[in-house]
Amino acid sequence: MTHPLHAQLDRALHEVWELMLTGPLEASDAAPEDAEPGALTASIQLSGTHERALALQCPLKLARRLTEEMLCMEPGEADPSTIQDALGELANILGGHVKAILDQGGTLSMPTVTRAATLQDVLPGSEETLALGFRYQGEALRVALLTCPT
Amino acid sequence: MKILICDDSKAMRMIVKRTLRQAGFGDHEVLEAEDGAEGLAVASAEQPDLILSDWNMPNMSGIEFLKAFRAAGGATNFGFVTSESSVEMRSEANGAGALFLITKPFTADTFQKELGSLLS
User: Fold this and answer.
1) What are phi and psi of A146, to 5 degrees?
2) Do A101 and A7 contact (CB within 8 A), yes or no?
3) Domain total in chain A
4) Is B24 strand, coil or helix?
């Protein structure tokens, strides 16, 4: 059964994508296990009536492409700190959209970007509520909504 | 005119600068600050004509920046460019003296609509 927030999260991601990036985002059934080792995870926590987090995971190769597209850079121009910054900002913007959808009040944290093996490494004790898989320019991208311990 | 862009993300400051150019405001001088505390210092020293600030930043948030700036007598036009835009935030921003709140992601059209009368 599809989670009630599935369509809204999908729409939010596409809205953000269309304004910040140039190419089409394709739905994909890529499982979490398919994430490349060393993939980057950008996450942001949403506090309020519930403690939640939003995580965006993608390989470094894709994170670099996203950064260079967002910032109109030449291929290979983005350095690691710029990639982290841009991916964090993408998570921040998506977090703002999701916070509006959830309508739970509260605050958004600062985004964090890490190179971690699993979401449990990034957000210990969290439980995944919903995850959506996509492909962009042939690379896997995953967006997950999590419930966090209070 | 001088425009101060205050955002802890360098990437977002780059996007805001590019969008200002796309909206036809590329001839203005742009100043940058990476949090509210630095924004307050730059605003006091440089007397910009417009301040575009993120809301959620380390050290000093955008709303704290605005309140401190107004409390010190700063009258510069001030608007938020932020990833959130709840009714409560808009109300607090307006109450503190902000002119507008632009939600990320934005377009050049949005900048033209919100900033056109301030920068022309």
Assistant:
1) -125, 150
2) no
3) 1
4) coil
A3: left (phi over 0), alpha (psi -120 to 50) or beta: beta
A1-49 pLDDT tens trace? 678 888 999 999 999 999 999 988 998 876 545 556 678 999 999 988 8
On whether residue A131 sits in a domain, the answer given is no
C-alpha to C-alpha distance for B119 and B88, rounded to whole angstroms? 28
Q: What is the ipTM of this complex?
A: 0.93
The span from the CA of A147 to the CA of B51, in Å, is 36
The DSSP 8-state label assigned to residue B23 in this structure reads T
The Cβ-side half-sphere exposure at B91, using a 13 Å CA radius, reads: 3
- As a whole number, mean pLDDT of residues B84-95 equals 93
Q: Which residue has the tokens 């990034």?
A: A122
Has residue A59 been placed in a domain? Answer: yes
Nearest CA in chain B to A91: B83
CA neighbor of B32 nearest in space, from B5, B3, B67, B66: B5
Residue B12 to residue A108, Cβ atoms within 8 A: no
Extended strands (E) in A59-138: 112-115, 127-136
Beta-carbon-side half-sphere exposure of residue A120 (alpha carbons within 13 Å): 3
Reduced to 3 DSSP states, what percent helix, strand and coil does chain B have, rounded to the nearest 5? 45, 20, 35
d(CA A79, CA A82): 5
- Total domains, chain B: 2
Main-chain dihedrals φ then ψ at residue B107, nearest 5 degrees: -125, 170
Residues of B with CB under 8 A from a CB of A: 8-12, 14-15, 18, 56, 58, 82-86, 88, 103-107
Indicate yes or no: pTM above 0.90.
yes
Domain of residue B95, residue span: 77-103
Question: Is B43 part of any domain?
Answer: yes
